[in-house]
Design a protein that fits this description.
This protein is 44% helix and 22% strand. It is an alpha/beta fold and 158 residues long. A 5-stranded mixed β-sheet has the order 2-1-3-4-5, with helices on both faces. The mean pLDDT is 96.
Amino acid sequence: MTDRRPAAELHRALRERGATLAVAESLTGGLLSAALVDVPGASATFRGGVTAYATELKASVLGVDEGLLAVHGPVHPVVARQMADGVRRLLGATYGLATTGVAGPQEQDGKPVGTVHIGLSGPDGARTVSLELSGARETIRRDTVAAALDLLLTRLAG
């Protein structure tokens, strides 16, 4: 069973601000959305999510620059930021959160397992946090969800 506290705290903070959230997921494959909807009353602040696992969907659905993807691949900090911008725009949310990276078991496009980028887009701009996580695939994915929730919580608190 997952700890609902960070997601519940995030929903509370969003409600207090009259704000909403949309997510774009790659390596987390829906885990971030699941963590958010696991909280009763999530529909008041969670607009929805896009799981763009395939690289071409990052461009065609979320509007990530095709040239960027061609040169750097999907595991790149600017890709995460553009995914967050794209899902925010697409789903009409106040904030967009995005996850991309390599959960394993093997490296991807020369990027080692545990390379993670989390994008955050909001009315006050966009940013990316890059992490180097370790552990099994499921641990990396779960730790990415926790880091994404924390990133937006920190933004809302500051």
